[in-house]
Queue: 4 jobs
Job 1
Amino acid sequence: MTRINDFRARNHPAYWAFVVHRVSGLALAAFLPVHFWAMGLAIQGEVALDGFLRFTDQALFKFGEWGLVLLLALHMMGGVRILLVEFGPWSGLRKNWIAGTLGFGIATSLAFALALIS
């Protein structure tokens, strides 16, 4: 028996929590080589690192830092939610936890954005 893809499942909050968790994890993994390259500049010396830090003191990079913090917060809280569902005494997908995860990620990234602009 072949299973027909049911698109109604893609409207469920748990599906979107899965998508956000997966995409944020992939984006964070894609960021790691850039981070390792920047840390490698610190090994090369103070002049190389200072030049890189001056280059990254632009608005586009500040926006990228905000996005990185948003991804980190969403991925972390999504992982905590999964751990609570898997190992906690509760059952079900807990839509309120999904909303809490999203709220925490947005609140954390907005607090970081306020720190960036001040």
Note: Residues 32 and 46 are 21 Å apart (CA to CA).
Job 2
Amino acid sequence: MMAAACRAGRPGLLLILTLLLAACSSVPTTAPVVGSPAPTPAPSLPEEPRIDYFALDNPLHPREMVMVALGLLDTGYAFGGRNPEAGLDCSGMVSYVVEQVSGRRLPHNASKIAEITRPIPVSSLQPGDLIFFNTMNRRHSHMGIYLGEGKFVHAPSSRGRVRVERMDSPYFAPRVDGARTLLTTG
């Protein structure tokens, strides 16, 4: 088309540009009535943000997570640790367990794991779900894997070993700040 415009010269180029611009414009279907209010645009609904949560493929994986996590009991704590040989921290333990069960990797950060996993009410926790705590005056600063019957397994920094705790303990009960599931549906 540009070659045709060049052969046609300047007047031809102007004609082609005018036609292109005219094709992009629109003509109102009815003339506005003088004194009538301007048409209001159709209301648009706000779009729900689409979140693709990290989810396990197999509905049996959460139960397997419980078994793998219990196999880590008494493993030493190491800040930043993500394997049992070197030691584990809380998010490193969860990330390690999920990878052992599913072959997929979570971030090594409790807050980031909370961001990408589906929130659920704490009252809906099932074995294999994730429980989050505010232990450092910031949300999701600690986490563990829920075992059932009000217990969870985690890698605490105090006393330095992976262990089971009760959610209703005087220390953890007031610090619970969320729960997440790795299943696509509740």
Note: Strands lie at 82-83, 87-88, 118-120, 130-133, 142-148, 151-154, 163-166, 176-181.
Job 3
Amino acid sequence: MQETMVYNEKISKVIDNVNKVMIGKEDVAILSLVALLAEGHVLLEDVPGVGKTMLVRTLAKSLDCDFKRIQFTPDLLPSDVTGISIYNPKEMEFVFRGGPIFGNVVLADEINRTSPKTQSALLEGMEEKSVTVDGETIPLQKPFFVMATQNPIEYEGTYPLPEAQLDRFILKLTMGYPSLEDELEMLERTSKEHPIESLSPVMSKEELVIIQKEVRNVYIEKNVQQYIINLVRETRNHESIFLGVSPRGSIALMKAAKAYAFIKGRDFVLPDDVKYLAPFVLTHRIILTAEAKYDGKSARQIVEQVVKQTFVPIRKEF
């Protein structure tokens, strides 16, 4: 119990670090930590200049993690992501030089700008926690966290991620524009030196791996598991949804709920945790019918409707 309190204090310090750099974005910081502690990955979809890259850099610096950035372009090759074997004439053998995927926190900037072949090189590592080069499978470092970004406005020259690849991301988030007060404070803070320059690590990589293991042990009751299944099955039967959420989505929602409960200082999951996280976990995993799109409905609206319609379990003794 005492160890859990120490870890919660460290998580709070990470959130405080993010708040020093990202003004008014505490909810995004918490959700990013949810994905990180659940050993998942995040897709950030928003317009340029709202702080997507800065969020990832802040997390990496706060956690004392090795930060790598991949700027995806149409001419990027899979070997630019995974690395390549180079011949060493002195030793007369090939030596593997790892690419940027061998970092702890990896920013996949504008992932939809590159070809599906290169996208798949990154997505293999996300799912399998390893990469295959020259027929050899090489495990990635722990922790391993990918935050991919894409611009929802400009689609010219892009390769949209197919649904099977979108399913690899545990959460899909947006940053949004800051409020007037937040933007004024942002100008004030960055007028001399950027706040990220003065940040110091508040958690080590080793501690993060331990916390990830602790999150797996968070208790989730059968009726809360049933609630997750009911939500997911409802997306498969909804009249406005062409393709519902897969079992991978059920597992992702459970993992995210455990991580969120741990961040909130609990060793058990509440139905409210599932209810709050459902739109972030499920929205990018469904495909709407043509009629729903024609009527102007969004996937987020449909998921929120599903959440409202699904019965929330309540135990009498509570």
Note: The chain is about 45% helix and 15% strand.
Job 4
Amino acid sequence: MPSRIVLVTGVGGELGGKLLARLGNNPDFQRVIGVDTVPPAPHVAARMGRAEFVRADIRNPLIAKIIAASEVDTVVHASTTAHPAGPARRTAVKEMNVIGTMRLLAACQRSPLVRKLVVKSTAAVYGTDARSPAVFDEDAPLRPPSAQGFVADAVEVENYVRGLQRRRPDIAVTVVRFTNLIGPQVDTVTTRYFALPVVPTILGYDARIQLLHAADALSVLELAAVEDKPGVFNVGGDGVLTLSQAIRRAGRVELPLPKAMLPSIGRMLRGARLVDFSPDRIQLLQHGLVVDTTKVKREFGFVPRWSTQEAFDDYVQGRGLRPVVDGGAMTESLSRVAFAAARRM
């Protein structure tokens, strides 16, 4: 395989930073460049090998000059965010997701040397409701739960990627749709949700959830960067957990509430900067989402090291979550909020 020059976005985050370190120690690449507005974490920077960090904002057209001047031929776009860490500034995240992707893809289109693009996406793009299939494959239509949420950003990003493919069919494009990531170092609305002492759920529903350990996600991104396997791939751990099973395994207390009351609870938790109950989130908690991972196993030979259950247990152990001995006070507080909201409806 000829020497290659790869550029990785989002290296200030946990997943992007670790990918930069992996590729920086991979002899398949002549040069590895990581870009972000913030540098990789110190524990990542210490293991970067030959990789280098360039402080750059992909929303700025200057990203095109970096790609051209560095003679980049492989781009791994790992900075997209569909599951932020708790309540996030919607405008800033949307700009990074959508405007940043537009600038990056425009730079790829203009550079004749770019021949490979890997994009991190989310399985949440399928949407989920009462009519959804039990298991989604890669050919399922994309139906974001709301027009304004983070999942809608991911669908928009994938639309831009398809546009690039039409304009530059010579670029091999790989899109990986991850189920919810989990692990001791992962900080998202999902991991914060399961760490709540009392976990609000939707009365009458017990959604099936499929999780992916962050280390398995990292392995897939590395494989996609090294191997030329164009296409769209679902990636998730084997097996599923129901929401109630996961809450019990984390030692939390479940609080089933009518669906209409969750936004009120969400406002209280958002004020504490914990989690949010966006329309995307509520729909997932109601109906769950499970994907078929046959394609990634067949074409990449990838078998996840952690099943959904094992990934969740590693998260619980790594975070040091202890069973809630008395969740009565919190349950009573949340119930009062829900009751007050119900009286205003």
Note: The chain is about 40% helix and 20% strand.
